[in-house]
Structure formats: structure tokens, C-alpha cells
Design a protein that fits this description.
Length: 267
Amino acid sequence: MFSSPVVWQGLLIPFLGTTLGAACSFFLRGNLPRGVEKALTGFAAGVMVAASVWSLLIPAMEESAAAGDLAFVPAVAGFWLGTLFLLLLDRIIPHLHQHAKESEGPKSSLSKSAMLVLAVTLHNIPEGMAVGVVLVGFLSGEPTITVGAVLALSIGIAIQNFPEGAIISMPLRANGMSRGRSFLAGTASGIVEPIGGAVTILLASLVVPVLPYLLSFAAGAMMYVVVEELIPEMSEGKHSDIGVLSFALGFTLMMALDTALGYVIVE
């Protein structure tokens, strides 16, 4: 299954987005202006919401179409499982959100930099799962999941991973960390995505029978991140309209990508 170029493209394109964003630490030293951070965070939130709907929830319900009026059940059940899974990780992994004064999760002696990286890593777990589940659907021959659908999701996540890589690496650089270490820290925050996707593919025999549940599981996990982390960050303080407009831009861009490249209506 890993011999398919579509698999490697799907797994590595999002990671490339994070890597390119982290590379900003080689060219810029100061922190990003707060307005720019809000815009980038809002954009990422918009992409994730659109991906949750068009790339995950709609295919989940289409995969369950044979259930008739109950086709929504796997989507609802999987969405709740994904939400509760991220809630659990949020409680057991020590992490620190950008601009937060106190860390979340259990008490830890980890440095602030390490907990910032863990926060973004936690954020990236559902994205890696989403790509992996969609790739499993493609490899199993599901008619609603095309090559275009895989690439649309991967490209959309890569686009919103770019600012994430920058938001991690540049503050570390501004606080005195070397360019190379700042870059590696930003890049490391995204490595969980291809790893998570690859593990999902390796478990393909277990995934296919419950594909609708897992598609919506990834959607629930992504929406948890959006509501718990990204929306509060993009709306904090004055000029929250910057975040809202960027959210709309990210949402419509991801919606257009998925609709143009991969969305198939099954009669």
C-alpha cells in the first residue's frame, strides 16, 4: 500500500507545509505581529472547519447511505468519539498555548518551549488521522474518495500548516534560540501528522469496516481543536474582525479545493 505515490503525496504534503513555515526562522527574527498571528490562526481554523465538513463528515454520511434515514448515526457517533478523544489528550498531555500564562494538562517540569511544541503537536494529531483515514478509503476503492479528494485535503492542511510552523519557530527564535534549533522545533511539531497517517494506513484492515465512524472521528477531533484553541486565539483582544475574515478566507479556499478536486456525489 505504501508503493502508491498518492499515499506518499498525501502523507508528506502537509508535513512540507509545516516545514516551510518553520523555515521562516532563518529569514525573520522577531515575533509575528499580533494581527498577523490572528489572521493566520483564523485562516487555519477556517481550513479545518471546511475540511471537517467536506472531506470527512459528508463522505462519512455518504458511506452510510445504505442505512437510509439513519445514515447520520456513524457521523454523529464518530464525531463525539473524536471530540472526547481530544478532550482526553488535552487533559493528560502537558502543553502551553500561544500567549497563555498557564500551561494545561498535568504539572510538568518541561520548558515553555517544549510545551509550546507539544500544544501544536496535539493540534496536529487529528489532521494526521484525517489524512490517514481518507487515504485508507482511497486505497480500499471507496467511490466517494478520489485522488482529487486526497490531494485536496492534503493541500488544504499543508496551507494551514505553514502559519503553524511559523508561529512555533519564530517566537523561539525571538527568545534567543538558534535558527537551526527553532526550525527543528517548528518542524518537529508537524512530524506527528505523517506518522499518524502511516499508522492509520497500517491498520487499514481494521479501519475499512468502520470507515464512516473514523472519518467523523477525525472531524470531531479537528473541530475540538478549532473551538478550544484557534477561535479563542483569533478572537482575543481588539480587532477580532481580522481573524473572522481570515477564517472566511480559509473556509472558502478549502471548500473550493475539495469541491473542485475531489467531491463526488454518489446516487
